């Protein structure tokens, strides 16, 4: 943070989850460096829990961060983060990049539930999240972007979310906002002046039998069945709290019925 | 390329079903987000740079001969709203009907055989451009312009907006239409070598959400 | 047909008015019903469905100004099973959907034939519009224009494409004539003058079998279509 970092930080975190053969999940790979650290926390039942801990604030301009999570057959992994991620301006001209790659094998299940990403004024960040699922894999993926801290102009933020299911891309969407983004991003077709936007992707083989039906969720949110056993919830809200409330409600709607 | 054929294809009176669609404008008017010429311009600009760009790139790629099946799947992945996927296929089928009469071609016949319930409209638009002797930029222009002209003319009917003001909006957006077309054609050329993942995927959350809300309205003037 | 190119792939028919479906079978006869708002188009369609549904296989396409109003009336009245009634959105321009850009109506007609066919007859009802609205020959084989006595007894004299050229002119709600001061004899004379030899039917749907004459005309058309 003292000028040493002119080229930006390069950091990667990796986790691999495997079935341990006793009905549980083990983590033969769990590593992170620089600002990205992974901690195993107490799991529940057969599911392993991992927390992404930001050891320093970031990403800053010029940083290149990546997270890889790989869930093998029969394993169940839940990844959260300890706090919201702040995209901050850096001394570096180039923006920051954050690259998330998730792979889930058939019979595996991944919950990717990081806290919000906050695009701070003057920052420039490009996030790519790519989930690649085999047939029979399960996924719950939530991403939330908050444009600026309270009352603040946002930075420049570009997100791209792709979900590939058994080799077929079922969702590919990019969102660009903030100063320098193509025009109209804050207008009535895109974000309508709202400051929090989020996506929840749920993939469950059961949706083949019982397809999700499209529905409006009230506010500015909707459940959108994707091609294949998958659904996207898209929500736009005035702030992070209201966005989370909508996505939590949608998540309960799409969760398996409890016995 | 034939500028005459481009005018035929780009004509708002080309009988391919577009008149019954507002491009999300009816939902935005209903939500109180489009209330006059200024908010219409914002709306159109946002649509142009998101779904307009994607449609233009898909149309250009189809005009360059990229496989329509792959393009249709790419359009699906870029259209999470089922209401909009259905509308895009319906409009594709309607365009194909008109195109096969206007520019009879084996490629259009083959497309009809492969997608009896319709392919995404921009895919059909690109193949139609080929049949009409037009190029990728022509196809992209039709898609990009349609992404703003549809909402503008619908808003004239929905709000009683002064038609001169609506046309003024379109004229002011013209340079941005040029820019979007240029991006779209560049991406489409990339897709020829690298595959359809190279196509843009710009999305507009409120258009997606609004389309689902609108599909549930009991009383509406437009199909989308 | 005026189009020479072959349709060899089994996709949707590229031409609109051809008498054959892609599989070579004869398609249904399509009859359009147009006319001003409130003249009784939907009531006539409902009455025709009731009287003809046991004789022929039929379906209805409605073109509402507000999407589904007329379709829902027909559904409520249960004149046909719901899968035989389709609504087409018209983007606030009902005449465009039946005349200038008929593609959505053609899709609806073909989908009905695919999904509930084989059909003998499809009634295409226009959204209420003005006196100039007529159906494209690419969409329907014959058209009925419905006006009513309450709309003013000078309508036949005023003419317009619907009144003068429709294959059948229906003057509806004759039971109201004494109450609204309409002169039926004058309407009949004006209609004859405007339409030369084209037929005119005066009807009231309040009476038993009120749609009898229109139904008879439809039966004649069907007989000619299948001959």
UniProtKB/TrEMBL annotation, chain A:
<dbReference type="GO" id="GO:0005737">
    <property type="term" value="C:cytoplasm"/>
</dbReference>
<comment type="subunit">
    <text>UreD, UreF and UreG form a complex that acts as a GTP-hydrolysis-dependent molecular chaperone, activating the urease apoprotein by helping to assemble the nickel containing metallocenter of UreC. The UreE protein probably delivers the nickel.</text>
</comment>
<dbReference type="Pfam" id="PF01774">
    <property type="entry name" value="UreD"/>
</dbReference>
<dbReference type="GO" id="GO:0016151">
    <property type="term" value="F:nickel cation binding"/>
</dbReference>
<protein>
    <recommendedName>
        <fullName>Urease accessory protein UreD</fullName>
    </recommendedName>
</protein>
<keyword id="KW-0963">Cytoplasm</keyword>
<comment type="similarity">
    <text>Belongs to the UreD family.</text>
</comment>
<keyword id="KW-0143">Chaperone</keyword>
<comment type="function">
    <text>Required for maturation of urease via the functional incorporation of the urease nickel metallocenter.</text>
</comment>
<dbReference type="InterPro" id="IPR002669">
    <property type="entry name" value="UreD"/>
</dbReference>
<keyword id="KW-0996">Nickel insertion</keyword>
Automatic annotation (TrEMBL), chain B:
<comment type="function">
    <text>Required for maturation of urease via the functional incorporation of the urease nickel metallocenter.</text>
</comment>
<keyword id="KW-0963">Cytoplasm</keyword>
<dbReference type="GO" id="GO:0005737">
    <property type="term" value="C:cytoplasm"/>
</dbReference>
<keyword id="KW-0996">Nickel insertion</keyword>
<keyword id="KW-0143">Chaperone</keyword>
<protein>
    <recommendedName>
        <fullName>Urease accessory protein UreF</fullName>
    </recommendedName>
</protein>
<comment type="subunit">
    <text>UreD, UreF and UreG form a complex that acts as a GTP-hydrolysis-dependent molecular chaperone, activating the urease apoprotein by helping to assemble the nickel containing metallocenter of UreC. The UreE protein probably delivers the nickel.</text>
</comment>
<comment type="similarity">
    <text>Belongs to the UreF family.</text>
</comment>
<dbReference type="Pfam" id="PF01730">
    <property type="entry name" value="UreF"/>
</dbReference>
<dbReference type="InterPro" id="IPR038277">
    <property type="entry name" value="UreF_sf"/>
</dbReference>
<dbReference type="InterPro" id="IPR002639">
    <property type="entry name" value="UreF"/>
</dbReference>
<dbReference type="GO" id="GO:0016151">
    <property type="term" value="F:nickel cation binding"/>
</dbReference>
TrEMBL record, chain C:
<feature type="binding site">
    <location>
        <begin position="35"/>
        <end position="42"/>
    </location>
    <ligand>
        <name>GTP</name>
    </ligand>
</feature>
<dbReference type="InterPro" id="IPR027417">
    <property type="entry name" value="P-loop_NTPase"/>
</dbReference>
<keyword id="KW-0963">Cytoplasm</keyword>
<dbReference type="GO" id="GO:0005525">
    <property type="term" value="F:GTP binding"/>
</dbReference>
<dbReference type="GO" id="GO:0043419">
    <property type="term" value="P:urea catabolic process"/>
</dbReference>
<keyword id="KW-0342">GTP-binding</keyword>
<keyword id="KW-0996">Nickel insertion</keyword>
<comment type="similarity">
    <text>Belongs to the SIMIBI class G3E GTPase family. UreG subfamily.</text>
</comment>
<keyword id="KW-0143">Chaperone</keyword>
<protein>
    <recommendedName>
        <fullName>Urease accessory protein UreG</fullName>
    </recommendedName>
</protein>
<feature type="domain" description="CobW/HypB/UreG nucleotide-binding">
    <location>
        <begin position="31"/>
        <end position="201"/>
    </location>
</feature>
<dbReference type="InterPro" id="IPR004400">
    <property type="entry name" value="UreG"/>
</dbReference>
<keyword id="KW-0547">Nucleotide-binding</keyword>
<comment type="subunit">
    <text>Homodimer. UreD, UreF and UreG form a complex that acts as a GTP-hydrolysis-dependent molecular chaperone, activating the urease apoprotein by helping to assemble the nickel containing metallocenter of UreC. The UreE protein probably delivers the nickel.</text>
</comment>
<dbReference type="GO" id="GO:0003924">
    <property type="term" value="F:GTPase activity"/>
</dbReference>
């Amino acid at each position: 943070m003292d000028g040493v970092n002119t080229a930006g930080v390069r950091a990667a975190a990796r986790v691999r989850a495997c079935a341990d053969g006793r009905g549980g999940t083990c983590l033969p790979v769990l590593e992170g460096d620089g600002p990205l650290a992974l901690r195993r926390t107490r799991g529940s039942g057969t599911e392993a829990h991992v927390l992404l801990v930001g050891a320093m604030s970031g990403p800053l301009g010029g940083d290149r961060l990546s997270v890889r999570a790989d869930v093998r057959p029969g394993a169940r992994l839940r990844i959260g983060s300890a706090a919201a991620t702040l995209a901050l301006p850096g001394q570096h001209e180039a923006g920051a990049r954050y690259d998330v790659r998730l792979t889930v094998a058939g019979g595996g299940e991944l919950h990717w539930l990081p806290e919000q990403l906050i695009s701070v004024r003057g920052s420039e960040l490009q996030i790519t999240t790519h989930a690649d699922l085999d047939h029979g894999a399960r996924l719950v993926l939530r991403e939330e972007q908050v444009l600026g801290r309270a009352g603040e102009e946002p930075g420049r933020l570009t997100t791209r979310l792709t979900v590939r299911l058994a080799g077929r891309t079922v969702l590919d969407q990019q969102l660009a906002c903030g100063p320098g983004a193509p025009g109209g991003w804050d207008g009535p077709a895109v974000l309508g002046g709202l400051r929090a936007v989020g996506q929840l992707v749920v993939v469950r083989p059961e949706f083949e039998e019982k397809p999700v039906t499209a529905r409006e969720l009230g506010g500015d949110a909707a459940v959108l069945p994707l091609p294949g056993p998958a659904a996207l919830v898209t929500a736009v809200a005035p702030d992070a709290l209201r966005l989370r409330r909508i996505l939590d409600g949608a998540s309960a709607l799409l969760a398996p019925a409890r016995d | 390329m034939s500028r005459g054929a481009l005018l035929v294809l780009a004509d708002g009176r080309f009988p391919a079903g577009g008149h019954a669609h507002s491009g999300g404008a009816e939902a935005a008017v209903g939500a109180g987000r489009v209330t006059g010429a200024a908010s219409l311009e914002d709306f159109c600009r946002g649509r142009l740079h998101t779904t307009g760009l994607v449609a233009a790139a898909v149309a250009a790629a189809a005009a360059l001969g990229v496989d329509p099946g792959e393009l249709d799947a790419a359009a699906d992945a870029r259209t999470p709203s089922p209401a909009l996927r259905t509308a895009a296929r319906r409009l594709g089928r309607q365009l194909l009907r008109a195109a096969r009469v206007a520019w009879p071609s084996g490629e259009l016949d083959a497309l009809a055989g492969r997608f009896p319930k319709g392919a995404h409209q921009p895919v059909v638009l690109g193949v139609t451009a080929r049949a009409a002797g037009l190029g990728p930029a022509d196809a992209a222009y039709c898609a990009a312009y349609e992404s703003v002209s549809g909402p503008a003319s619908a808003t004239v009917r929905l709000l009683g907006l002064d038609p001169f003001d609506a046309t003024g909006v379109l004229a002011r957006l013209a340079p941005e239409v040029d820019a979007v077309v240029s991006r779209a054609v560049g991406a489409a050329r990339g897709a020829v070598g690298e595959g359809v993942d190279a196509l843009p995927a710009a999305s507009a959350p409120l258009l997606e959400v609004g389309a689902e809300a609108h599909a549930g309205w009991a009383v509406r003037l437009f199909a989308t | 047909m005026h189009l020479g190119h072959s349709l060899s792939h089994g996709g949707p028919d590229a031409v609109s008015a051809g008498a054959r479906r892609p599989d070579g079978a004869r398609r249904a006869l399509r009859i359009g019903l147009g006319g001003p708002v409130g003249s009784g188009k939907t009531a006539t369609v409902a009455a025709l469905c009731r009287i003809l549904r046991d004789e022929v296989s039929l379906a209805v396409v409605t073109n509402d100004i507000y999407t589904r109003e007329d379709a829902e009336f027909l559904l409520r009245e249960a004149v046909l099973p719901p899968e035989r009634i389709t609504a087409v959105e018209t983007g606030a321009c009902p005449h465009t959907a039946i005349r200038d850009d008929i593609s959505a109506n053609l899709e609806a007609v073909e989908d009905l034939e695919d999904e509930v066919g084989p059909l003998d007859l499809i009634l295409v009802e226009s959204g209420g519009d003005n006196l100039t609205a007529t159906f494209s020959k690419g969409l329907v084989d014959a058209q009925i224009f419905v006006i009513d006595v309450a709309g003013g007894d000078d309508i036949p004299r005023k003419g317009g494409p619907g009144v003068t050229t429709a294959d059948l002119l229906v003057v509806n709600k004759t039971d109201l004539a004494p109450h609204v001061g309409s002169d039926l004899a004058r309407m009949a004379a004006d209609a004859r003058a405007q339409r030369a030899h084209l037929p005119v039917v005066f009807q009231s749907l309040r009476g038993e079998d009120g749609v009898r004459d229109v139904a008879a005309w439809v039966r004649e058309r069907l007989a000619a279509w299948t001959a």
